[in-house]
Amino acid sequence: MKILVASVLILVGSCSTFRHSEKIDNLKDSIQFNDKVVIEQYLSTIEIEELKYHVEEVSSDKYNGRMTGEKGHNEVCNYIRKYYASQNIKAPNTHPNYYQKVPKEVLPDDLNDSQNIIAYIEGSEFPNEYIYITAHSDHEGVIDGEIYNGADDNGSGTAAVLEMAEAFSKAVKGGHGPKRSIVFLHVTAEEVGLHGSRYYTDNPIFPLENTVSTLNIDMIGRVDDKHKNNENYIYLIGADRLSSELHFIAQKANTEFTNLELDYTFNKEKDVNRYYYRSDHYNFASKGIPVIFFFNGEHEDYTKPTDTADKINYPLLAKRTKLVFATAWYLANSPQRLNPEII
Ligand SMILES: [Zn+2]
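Above: the input record for the complex with zinc ion. Below: its predicted structure, written as tokens.
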């Protein structure tokens, strides 16, 4: 009798496993990049030299390590918003100078007022649905007389967002503007405790319930020790926590366009590094918004004054930026809004 019960249970178990794998296969099959040639056209506008230009600018000594609330950080924010203006990428109507003030009352220590920067491209079919591409703009400032340039952390992410914004704006001009709106958000005060993104998600400019997904970039220009012999990789964190579809969209974007090794080591629930909780995407995820954190892992210059622009691997930065762009493109243009469910 015991044996019989066990075999019935096995039968039931394998049936539901079968149904589950069929569901997964159907989900994977439903993700199709039908406009591959068009996407490739705009991926090709993400250029190594332009990324290098932005990284060198934002991590240069003149900005004194971009400490939140200090003159150097404010000047870098000005560089970022001027770039959007120069590309004719809009500021929100409610924040016409691209800035959302983050008041010193919500910041730690004795930091001064700071700001998040918001630019966006309005969707042609679903303008009230939003895809966010985010990166923090601040770094650690000057410590013991040494400038912390933060070229990887997060000059690389800042440059990637600017370059993707340019690519999407070229797509608009070419008649291939996104169906959903794309928001380019540069948050402040990440290094001192994710405060800029927390302030934004507590005081969103566009309704959070209309936010489809947030793609966050924090360090994508270097190679960690684990991958010294295979630099063609990126860590993805969080993609499958709130939406199975998001996980497979990123995978499909990668197989179609970039062929990086997607490393999920840090996505494990029990990973001791807890990176899922340690950058700005988490403030979106904690409000139920599906996120992906794109990350290269730590390296010998992480949080050191030696994280400088000459050490960035620019071809790799370009490739990783293209993966984020292709993922964002799909999210912005898919016929159905991303399904925020785990199957
Ligand atoms: Zn960072």
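Notes for the reader.
Strands lie at 99-102, 114-121, 126-136, 142-143, 146-147, 180-187, 211-217, 233-237, 261-263, 291-295.
Residues 136, 153-154, 190, 218-219 surround zinc ion (CB under 6 Å).
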